[in-house]
Amino acid sequence: MTLGTTRICLFLVFFVSYLIHASAFFISYHRGHIYADEMRELMITVLKIYSVHFAVIMGGFFAKKSKSKKIESYSFWVALVSSVGWNLLLLWYSVLFGYMGKGTIIDLSTYLNDISSWSSFLIVGVLAFFFIKQE
Amino acid sequence: MLLRRTIVALLCISVVLTLPYTIDGQEGAVKIEAVVQTHRTHDRTVIYKVNYSYEFKGLDSVYIEGFGSVPAKGRFTYFTEDSNIRFKESAQGRILTVISLLGSEVNTSSTTEADFPEESQFTLTYRSGLWPYSSSFQKAINKVINQSFPSGYKAFEANNINYYQTTYVSLRDLPENLIAEIAVLFSHPYEVKARQFAFHIQFVAREKRVQSGRWRYELSQETQTSSERFIDEFIKKLSEEGKKNK
After folding, report:
1. 3-class secondary-structure state, position B154
2. A36 and B CB contact within 8 Å
């Protein structure tokens, strides 16, 4: 497994997760369960949560680093599981909210803000390792 | 919600206090059946929900301060910010009796709050109705409001006008994704003529989507229509009550 492939995998995990969040909010709005400005508020909340991670990921892509460098297989899997786990931790409530119509916007915003900050230890190290430290 | 209503109902039936009195040979009795002390939701001021019946022999009508002129025998349930109920012969007449709501029998409800809108939230425009019936407007409105607004209403008086301000009640016949509530402010009497007077109805409605976080006061067409229909039905019920007791 190369560093470049790992980076792409991790980027996809975050990007797809963000799209699922956004689609959940759009569906909720489309069904008339929330107002347009509330959908925008939710989009901004999630974008704020993901912006730091996206910044690190994008920075890694543009940095001049050895993308063909081989990495340990277990490192890749630990990174993948941590990233997927963190995203699932945030996603399940958004999916419940948007696709199944459960909860209110206040519940969801509080959950996303609280959980993202308390669980960030799961991904901070991983992203730093794969997108900053690899020379 | 059911548990909350059950607790309030239990509180309401737990107090029965009869205060007989005699003044200048006139006999009267006021039976305070329940007093529940609670708070207004938006400003946390103390408010009492009182349920009482009364009878004053030898009089056709009496005047209850903050509530208006009523028949000499009756029963009312409403919220009041005043901790006393004053019965008078007429608006400017002598005081018949004063009942304090601050006895040891007062129940304090910490589980429920009275969700009254602020007076300033009501629309400045109003609908007007005529009360040509000989029956008591207060009696009719007390009955119809308590039927239509289970959480009750607040009675108060300002500048010789009596006001009855309700708590919020859910509006019906709305799309599944919309929740709306309405509260109403009645005031009377206006344009008093021989045997009739006019009353005014103002309302405030609010709505939110089922997953929204906060109430909005800019209303959708559906809520507007439902509010108007609610007011129409209310006026109809009030007229029927007036005719019934004519």
Report:
1. strand
2. no
Please give the residue of chain B at the shortest CA–CA distance from A98.
Answer: B211
* Mean pLDDT for chain A overall: 88
ipTM of the complex: 0.80
Give the single-character DSSP code of A18. H
Residue for token digits 């958004």? A94
- For the record, the structure tokens of B183 come out as 């509260």
Task: Count Cβ atoms below 10 Å from residue B26 Cβ, excluding itself.
Answer: 14
Does the CB of A105 have a partner CB in chain B at under 8 Å?
Answer: yes
**For A110, which residue in chain B has the nearest alpha carbon?**
B213
Each as own residue / partner, the long-range contacts of residues B18-27 (CB below 8 Å, 24 or more positions apart, any chain) are B19/B97, B19/B99, B21/B96, B21/B97, B23/B96, B23/B97, B26/B56, B26/B57, B26/B58, B26/B59, B26/B96, B27/B56, B27/B57, B27/B58
User: pLDDT tens digits for chain B (246 residues)?
Assistant: 444 554 444 444 334 455 555 554 456 788 888 888 888 877 778 888 888 899 988 888 899 999 988 999 999 999 998 888 999 988 888 888 888 888 756 666 655 677 888 888 888 889 988 888 888 888 899 999 999 998 899 999 998 899 999 999 999 999 999 999 999 999 988 988 877 899 999 999 999 999 998 899 999 999 999 999 999 999 999 989 888 865
DSSP labels, B48-68:
EEEEEEEEETT-SEEEETTTE
Give chain A positions within 8 Å (CB) of B211: 28, 33-34, 97, 101, 103-105
Q: Is A26 on the interface with B (CB under 8 A)?
A: no
Count the neighbouring beta carbons within 10 Å of the beta carbon of residue A2.
Answer: 14
Spatial separation of the C-alpha atoms in residues B151 and B143, rounded to whole Å:
13
Angle between helices A105-118 and A73-100 (to 10 degrees): 170
In terms of Cα–Cα distance, which of A91, A121, A120, A101 is closest to A17?
A91
Q: Please list, in sequence order, all residues whose beta carbon lies within 8 angstroms of the beta carbon of residue A66, skipping any fewer than 6 positions away.
A: A3, A134, A135
Interface check for A25 against chain B (CB to CB < 8 A): the answer is: no
Q: What is the pLDDT of residues A35-45, one digit of tens each?
A: 999 999 999 99
Contact B211 A34 (CB under 8 A): yes
Give this prediction's pTM: 0.79
